[in-house]
Amino acid sequence: MVSNKTNSNNIYNFEHTPNLVFDTSLKLENGSVLNKPTIAYQTYGELNHNKSNAILICHALTGDQYAAGTNPITLKLGWWNDMIGKDKVFDTNSYFIICTNVLGGCMGSTGPKSINPDTNNYFGNDFPEIGIQDMVNLQKKLIDHFGIEKLLCVVGGSMGGMQVLEWATKYSDRVKLAIPIATSYRHTAQNIAFHEVGRQAIKNDTNWINGNYIKNNTSPKKGLAAARMVAHITYMSEKSLSKKFGRNKKNLNPLSKIFEGNFEVENYLQYQGSSFVSRFDANSYLHLTRSMDRFDLSEKFNGKLEKVFRSNTCKWLIISFNSDWLFPTSESKRLVNALNANACNVSFVEIESDRGHDSFLLQIPRLYSILRGFLIGAKFK
Amino acid sequence: MKNVRADHYIISKIVKNNSRILDIGCADGQLLHLLEKEKKVSGQGIEIKHDKVETCLKKGLSVIEGDANKEIINYPEKSFDYVILSQTLQTVERPKWILNEILRIGKSAIISFPNFGHWLCRAQILFKGKMPVTNDLKLAWYDTQNIHLCTIRDFNNLILELDIQIDEKFGINKKKVLSFPFNLFSLNIFASHAVFLVSKRN
User: Fold this and answer.
1) A233 vs A51, A275, A324, B88, CA distance in Å?
2) What's the average model confidence in pLDDT over A50-63?
3) CB-CB neighbors (< 8 A) of B42 in chain A
């Protein structure tokens, strides 16, 4: 099941450029400090002379900075390749697009597989607990480095949407347009539960070795693949799985073993799991899922979400998908209501799609036209 | 202010500068756009039709896509200076309930609706024995979305019953504002369309 095919560009030795190593340190929300953090990023288009055309695109849990163009690890097109480029929604003729690998990730930004500058060893199990806030704080260092005072727009789906929420509340004076897609201000018990199944799969893989597998020249591939398989189900809908696979069987050979997996949906998930392990680090997966679980925008306000948006000046567009059961429309509506309670400038659209949570990554015409329209409208104000 | 719909013109005169506005059933955002331009309001619309929501976004307007009947319960009390129900009251399922709701979330409400008591409607029913089809009620009974048509007097009576006060009332005929002061009786005959500014009685 988990293939041993190796990509020539292995995530453990590939140099992701451009990147920026800060001489300073990053103080984390939990109080600890990361010295000389690195942020790897990609940009598309040109920054204009008054630096007013920058759009920050935030990737989801297993995404990366290669939002458009060819990803050097997977050799596939970027996760929003149809969205970013000349004459596309995020038109590189007029916008400067920035996408960074998140803190804790495994595509060049400081994460568990990086070398700890304090010890000259892999972080491994020593990597500190990080939060969505810390990811945003590292991104802010890059935005400051570019000399961008105000981002025209911050946009992202799922975990990317959480970063949008953090940006547009903590640094609301630095953001003009905020577009959180298919996301929530905090995880529900169900969200946390699914993540915990994935984490258990990784931690129970004997190759995890308390997170210090790199030193031991191994990696918990089976655990990570299983984690991905569980997660992948949550990104789709029952309808889309049924449509795609139904109860179809691939191998009707009566001699095949009972548990080899004849259902097409089984093979599909196994493929998803095995292709994932070649591009993702297990410790990153543990840390990033944890940071999503811990994220709660209302925490500092005793759970009162309305207070988060007091005198918020951003212009918001909140988008959900009707078949998304991981971050259902009701979660987006809570954000809309909290913004409305503060007379904030908010628009909301629920887009019809039967593809579940992953809809934000797919070429859904209405998603594209809504985003395009919102960006056009923003020019008038 | 050329080419502005007469009811929109009246509303733009009523609304105070820099106020916060909710336009229920905002369609393509024509009124919100006018009010943002003329009165610098901070506005929001609720609209159910996909293409109209997109048009609003393109105009830079804030719009919540959804069914007003379900959306308005989510707004806290007195969150708007004005809640506007323009040509919508006669299409909602529970007009009485929605009037109470909009005066819960708004300090004032502006309601515009076609007047079923207009002489042309009366004449069509009286002489032709048919449901009226006029400039304000363009569609035949089987095509119209209007499920709760009323006359100006009917509306007035409902307002009295609901502990709401009428702050201002206007009549429109042939796309022009009726300029001289009408009483309820004559307004109900000569106005094809009415605009009311109402608020909760203290």
Assistant:
1) 41, 15, 11, 43
2) 98
3) 343, 345
Q: Is residue B100 included in any domain, yes or no?
A: yes
Known active-site residue A52: no
Catalytic residue at A324? yes
pTM of the predicted model as reported, rounded to 2 decimal places: 0.94
**Residue A374 at interface with chain B, using a CB cutoff of 8 Å:** yes
A19-187+297-378 CATH pick, 1.10.357.10, 3.40.50.1820, 1.10.760.10, 1.20.1080.10: 3.40.50.1820
Chain B's closest residue to A378, CA to CA, is: B60
Residue B95 domain boundaries: 6-116+149-200
B91 shares contact with chain A (CB less than 8 Å):
no
Q: Which amino acid is at B156?
A: N
User: What is d(CA A179, CA A92) in angstroms, rounded to the nearest whole number?
Assistant: 18
The CATH fold of domain A191-290:
Rna Polymerase Sigma Factor; Chain: A (1.10.1740)
Q: Model confidence over B141-172: pLDDT tens digits?
A: 999 999 999 999 999 999 999 999 999 999 99
B51 touches chain A (CB under 8 A): no
Residues of A within 8 A of B63 (CB-CB) are 347-348
What's the CATH number where B186 sits? 3.40.50.150
Beta-bridge partner residues of B168: B197
CA distances from B26 to A283, B73, B83 (A): 50, 17, 11
Does residue B55 lie within any of the structural domains? Answer: yes
Q: How many domains does chain B have?
A: 1
Phi-psi category of residue A140: left, alpha or beta, with phi > 0 → left and psi -120 to 50 → alpha:
alpha
Q: Is A341 on the interface with B (CB under 8 A)?
A: yes
Tell me, yes or no, whether B77 lies in a domain: yes
Q: 10 Å Cβ neighbour count for A372?
A: 18
Give this complex's ipTM.
Answer: 0.91
Q: What's the alpha-carbon Rg for chain B, to the nearest Å?
A: 16
